[in-house]
Automatic annotation (TrEMBL):
Protein name: MOSC domain-containing protein
Domain MOSC: 122-264
Record GO terms (molecular function): catalytic activity; molybdenum ion binding; pyridoxal phosphate binding
Pfam families: MOSC, MOSC_N
């Protein structure tokens, strides 16, 4: 088994970019989802309700972040203003920093919605659910966990049942693994080594309407697929539709394309 893709998503729900090598800290890939677009209420925007986020691109820089939309680009420095509050679903995150009016104007004009850009500084801790880990772990603005792992055998199994095959980017993984193993084998992984990094698989990733959207345009290509087929192929005992596994970082390190992936611990399927 080997790593075939590493992807960083600097801003929640915004297009990511691929890496040849990634550094994994306690919050996953360095600077992954440390930024978020938020509404006036502080609630983080997602492509579930704001599909134009698919057309926004973000790249981390030495000074902050570079944002581009439809040929227009701005560079946003690390914020230094007064702390504010953001929300991911019902989770309240205090101490995030607003990136200022210039970034807000650019994003509001591009997205056609009044929004602001916020950053989660290192001193802010957002804990993952303790129900799925045996010790404290944290994440950035991801839905719930810092790392998402998917496998090519599972995508091939799904595509074999779809009339229109889809690309892995719909599922927004940080790590894609390929090799001579069975589809859905990742359900039994508990601890894996990727490069010099060790990841603990925490829980299956529940899928939502975002996977029915083209990840490049945000257009909903099919109101039912691939969710309808996934519901038949790979559903948890609680009825949730699953693709991929959420993980936390047990040992910080690096990983690069082509690195071997070693399963250190296995267990029964965590869909049961």
């Amino acid at each position: 088994m080997r790593i075939t893709r590493l992807t960083k998503y600097p801003v929640k729900s915004v297009a990511g970019y691929d890496l040849a090598m990634a550094t994994f800290g306690p919050l996953g890939i360095d600077q992954d989802r440390k930024w978020a677009v938020v509404y006036g209420s502080g609630i983080a925007a997602t492509r579930r309700e704001l599909s134009r986020l698919a057309n926004l691109h973000a790249v981390c820089t030495d000074f902050g972040i570079s944002l581009s939309f439809d040929g227009e680009r701005i560079d946003v420095p690390w914020p230094s203003g007064a702390p504010t509050t953001a929300y991911v679903f019902s989770t309240k995150i205090e101490g995030v920093q607003d990136a200022g009016n210039y970034a807000s104007h650019f994003l509001s004009s591009s997205l056609e919605r009044e929004v602001r850009l916020v950053y989660m500084p290192d001193e802010v801790t957002r804990s993952v659910s303790s129900a799925y880990t045996d010790r404290p772990h944290a994440t950035g603005f991801a839905d719930g966990f810092p790392v998402l792992i998917t496998s090519m055998p599972s995508l091939l199994a799904l595509n074999a049942e779809l009339q229109q095959p889809i690309e892995m980017r719909r599922f927004r993984p940080n790590i894609v693994i390929d090799g001579a193993f069975e589809p859905w084998a990742e359900d039994e992984w508990r601890l894996i080594r990727v490069g010099t990094t060790i990841l603990r698989v925490a829980k299956p990733c529940e899928r939502c309407v975002m996977v029915t959207q083209d990840p490049v345009t945000g257009e909903q290509t099919d109101q039912r697929e691939p969710l309808m087929t996934l519901r038949r192929l790979h559903r948890a005992s609680n009825g949730k539709i699953i693709f991929g596994q959420n993980a936390v970082v047990e040992v910080e390190g690096t990983a690069k394309l082509g690195d071997e992936v070693e399963v250190l611990e296995r267990g029964a399927s965590n869909l049961i």
